[in-house]
Amino acid sequence: LTPFIGTVGTTVSAKGANFGATQGSSVLTFNGRPATIASWSNYEIVTTAPSNATFNALPVPVIVTVNGVNSAVSGATYFTFASPADIDFDGLSDSWEMTYFGNLNQSASGDPDLDGVTNLMEFLLGRNPTKGAIADNGINVNLKVYTPLSTP
């Protein structure tokens, strides 16, 4: 399996033998999720890493099933989904920073919308860091997020 680490959408090649000349009903899965196949031959399958198979940057199994039987893949049989690019090492995805701020000058501890939720928490929650938290009744909510200093 090459490469064995990448992001969603990475082109991945699985090499082995006896995959079958055509895909037919055979599948290649990442963490049990079928991948979209770009090309299939008896010795190589080319696909892209699917978005629905990630698991917190832990390696996930990649399995080729031919006619209902798991087939051997040479080399690595696990794929690790890397975190989104973060070239400034602030814990925030660069694409997230560019989407909401248009630059990479933000900090994880920043709170530009003054809602009490840091940029890092907004990023992890998948929220817009430039708009304060709004309750169901339309009233702004000032959230406080506390992190314990130690665990019991």
> Overall pLDDT, averaged?
82
CATH homologous superfamily (4th level) name of the largest domain: Immunoglobulins
Summarize the helix and strand pattern as letters: EEEEEEEEEHH
Q: Tally the helices: what do you get?
A: 2
Do you know the CATH topology of the largest domain?
Immunoglobulin-like
Work out the count of structural domains.
Answer: 2
CATH architecture of the largest domain: Sandwich
Shape: elongated
Range of strand content = 15-25%
Class based on secondary structure composition and strand pairing: mainly beta
- Cα(first) to Cα(last) distance is 42 Å
Note the main sheet: 6 strands, mixed
Summarize the entry for a quick read.
With 152 residues, the protein is mostly beta strands. Helices cover 10% and strands 24% of the residues. It has helices spanning 94-101, 119-125, and strands spanning 5-6, 11-15, 27-30, 33-34, 37-40, 44-48, 59-66, 69-71, 78-81.
Q: Would you write up a description of this structure?
A:
This protein has 152 residues and is mainly β. The chain folds into two domains: 5-81, Immunoglobulins (Immunoglobulin-like); 85-146, no CATH class. Helix content is 10%, strand content 24%. The chain contains two helices and nine strands. The strands form two sheets. Strands 1, 3, 4, 7, 8 and 9 form a six-stranded mixed β-sheet that branches. It has a three-stranded antiparallel β-sheet with strand order 2-6-5, with no helix packed on it. The longest helix is centred in the middle third of the chain and has 8 residues, at 94-101.
